[in-house]
Inverse folding.
């Protein structure tokens, strides 16, 4: 491999933005204090945590006091689901979700099912879309929570969260939205939505790994997951990850100011990649609705191809992408997302996700369009 590597797996994680690195470094050095301390060392960091809270709130369109910092998007999802179930135990045990959520939601709900919750798993259509009427039809007088993601991590397909929010408000049911893949890519308006809770993750938007947030609307009942000190106004115990929080705030600020132009550029690169692949490679098909989708993601099935072989061939050429198939103990489990969309096991086996980000260039996309037809043809032979 001689050419520079190409990273097209931004839905897995993103490189940390250089300005974010610069913002966090002092908090690994001279600004080391504990924000709960009242002396000079503590005071040197408290303001930074609160500024980061405001930066996150501005990206999401919520009040700073509604932001609870967590250690990951996964923790935020766990807190939302387990916290609401614990708080509303007396009122009901029914939860509505979809078959295409991230494992952070799916596996938490499976655990809650084992503890006595009843979960309705809504189907999506062949394009990965959800009809909001399905949510309304599923509500019973025992329903305490709706959990539907904003954008799907494998296909980028967007969900009708505005309509679901209206239903949730009208039917007085809490609505949790996993917005981990949407934040920084599409404008969020927590305040004007019917959402009660919203999960975020720093490393998907150019902050480091290990920092996330749950936005909890004032008045929404959600018990803490972690007990201990009184950090985060008693909603999340544990000394704050100050450097991570500062980095997350800075990354949100950058995402908010760069979003409009950045996403236009990435949409056109994504479309160029997708149209190029469809034109140059016979037997390639896009998974997911081509309009209601994140501007950065394309998921493509290559007929007669095993995605793992293609990803390895791409990797040898320095190109990083991913597939929805997970391999454990020698058996391959195909993407539950593509299965829920009614894709055949063959199509799921040959599906590759390309996800673009801030660093992606037109030159990189052209290089992939030269490489990919050659690799697919070789694998098919
Ligand atoms: N939710 C979605 C939609 C995701 O894509 C991810 C990460 O891939 C998560 C939740 C989990 O976030 P984290 O990696 O911060 O735990």
């Amino acid at each position: 491999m001689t050419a520079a590597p190409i990273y097209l797996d931004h839905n897995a994680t993103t490189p940390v933005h250089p300005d974010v690195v610069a913002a966090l470094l002092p908090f690994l050095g001279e600004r080391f204090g504990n924000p709960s301390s009242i002396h000079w060392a503590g005071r040197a960091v408290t303001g930074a945590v609160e500024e980061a809270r405001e930066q996150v709130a501005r990206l999401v369109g919520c009040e700073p006091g509604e932001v609870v910092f967590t250690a990951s998007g996964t923790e935020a999802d766990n807190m939302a689901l387990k916290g609401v179930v614990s708080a509303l135990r007396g009122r009901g045990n029914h939860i509505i979700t979809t078959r295409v959520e991230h494992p952070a939601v799916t596996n938490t709900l499976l655990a809650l099912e084992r503890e006595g919750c009843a979960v309705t798993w809504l189907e999506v259509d062949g394009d990965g879309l959800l009809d909001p009427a399905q949510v309304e039809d599923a509500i019973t007088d025992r329903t305490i929570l709706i959990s539907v993601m904003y954008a799907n991590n494998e296909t980028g397909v967007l969900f009708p969260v505005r309509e679901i929010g209206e239903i949730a408000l009208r039917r007085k049911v809490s609505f949790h939205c996993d917005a981990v893949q949407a934040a920084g890519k599409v404008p969020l308006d927590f305040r004007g939505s019917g959402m009660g809770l919203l999960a975020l993750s720093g490393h998907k938007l150019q902050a480091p790994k290990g920092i996330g947030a749950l936005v909890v609307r004032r008045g929404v009942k959600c018990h803490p997951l972690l007990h201990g000190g009184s950090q985060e106004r008693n909603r999340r115990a544990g000394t704050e990850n100050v450097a991570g929080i500062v980095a997350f705030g800075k990354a949100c600020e950058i995402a908010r100011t760069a979003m409009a132009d950045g996403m236009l550029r990435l949409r056109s690169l994504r479309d160029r990649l997708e149209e190029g692949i469809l034109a140059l490679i016979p037997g390639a098909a896009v998974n997911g609705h081509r309009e209601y989708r994140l501007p950065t993601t394309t998921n493509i099935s290559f007929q007669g191809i095993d995605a793992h072989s293609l990803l390895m061939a791409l990797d040898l050429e320095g190109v990083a992408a991913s597939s929805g198939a997970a391999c454990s103990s020698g058996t391959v489990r195909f993407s539950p997302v593509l299965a829920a969309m009614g894709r055949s096991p063959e199509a799921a086996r040959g599906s590759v996700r390309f996800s673009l980000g801030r660093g992606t260039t037109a030159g990189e996309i052209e290089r992939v369009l030269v490489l990919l037809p050659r690799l697919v043809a070789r694998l098919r032979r």
The pocket of pyridoxal-5'-phosphate is lined by residues 72-74, 77, 102, 104, 149, 153, 178, 180-181, 201, 203, 212 (CB under 6 Å). Residues 18-255 form a domain with the Aspartate Aminotransferase; domain 2 fold (CATH 3.40.640.10). The chain has two domains: 6-14+259-380, 18-255. The chain has a mean pLDDT of 96.
